[in-house]
Design brief:
This protein has 300 residues and is α+β, with helices and mostly antiparallel strands. Helix content is 32%, strand content 18%. It has two domains: 8-90, Phosphorylase Kinase, domain 1; 94-286, Transferase(Phosphotransferase) domain 1 (Transferase(Phosphotransferase), domain 1, Orthogonal Bundle). 42% of the residues are buried.
Length: 300
């Protein structure tokens, strides 16, 4: 059930609901002390029903809040009020990649600029031992000023083991605590094979997810489509996506190679550090390729 506008949560006044997902509801709210807009993520009550989950939530939220990077949304505080647990974050005016449609007519320099910012943010988080675990277009915001911001760092680890989103052709977010092998967390279309099979997850899993996001940014198509989340997860584990140049003309060889290496099923065959991906993307940017020639073309 959503929280009505005008409701007070401590010093924050709810303005409007802006999003609903597997990790809770997000509202735009007004900080009545500092007279600024903030984003408030209200967490499902089942997540924090016991002391162990609450302690893990506080630990993970504090770790995420310690990240200071221009491309990572800032967490201001975690709090409870009126029986509601919530996270207060920087409010970003803009659009997420899934609604912005970056691949639709986007120039290659724009795609590389956004991708490099994502990689830089992931590198900063990985250097602090924080894995995102649910990188996807919906978790990447581009502000009205063009600044890239990644949402929800580290928070997938403290989510419950129930799927909280309704099924949606590969977009359902499957969430579970990642404290042991055999649990699953992530969004079906973007999770790594080791996530999909409940294996051990490390920073290389984020690199796979990054490859899936970059593939979609370049081609406008999902790397691993499926009619249901189960079909999509099977595709992640089993299938190789079509080469980007089979869908879009003018994709540089180096960019296609980066995407292919990120999407290797075996983590040992991927880039081992996202910072290496960032460096290679910057090299492509420095080549000053003017644009992604042509438009997405249908293939039989």
């Amino acid at each position: 059930m959503s929280i009505p506008p005008g409701t007070r949560l401590g010093p924050y006044e709810i303005v409007t609901l802006v999003g609903v997902g597997g990790m809770g509801q997000v509202y735009r709210a007004r900080d009545l002390r500092l007279h600024r807009d903030v984003a408030i993520k209200v967490l499902p009550a089942a997540w924090l029903a016991d002391d162990e989950k609450r302690a893990r939530f506080v630990h993970e939220a504090r770790a995420a809040a310690a990240l200071t990077h221009p491309n990572i949304v800032t967490i201001h505080e975690i709090d409870s009020a009126n029986g509601v647990d919530f996270i207060v974050m920087e409010y970003v005016r803009g659009q997420s990649l899934d609604t912005r449609g970056l691949a639709n007519g986007a120039r290659l320099p724009d795609i590389l600029r956004v991708a490099t910012a994502i990689a830089d943010a992931l590198a900063a988080a990985h250097s602090r031992g924080i894995i995102h675990r649910d990188l996807k277009p919906a978790n990447v915001m581009v502000s009205n000023e063009g600044v890239v911001k990644i949402l929800d760092f580290g928070l997938a680890k403290i989510s419950s083991d129930a799927a909280l989103n309704p099924p949606d052709a590969g977009q359902t977010t499957l969430v579970a605590p990642l404290t042991r092998v055999g649990t699953i967390a992530g969004t079906a279309a973007y999770m790594s094979p080791e996530q999909a099979t409940g294996g051990m997850v490390d920073a290389r899993s984020d690199i796979f997810s990054f490859g899936a996001v970059l593939y979609e940014m370049v081609t406008g198509a999902r790397a691993f489509p499926g009619g249901t989340p189960a079909d999509t997860m099977l595709s992640v584990v089993r299938d190789q996506p079509k080469a980007p140049r089979a869908l879009v003309s003018g994709v540089p060889d180096t960019l296609e190679r980066i995407i292919s290496r990120c999407l290797q099923k075996d983590p040992r065959q991927r880039f081992q550090h996202i910072d290496d991906v960032r460096v290679e993307l910057e090299e492509i940017r420095n080549d000053a390729i003017p644009s992604l020639a042509g438009s997405a073309s249908a293939t039989p």
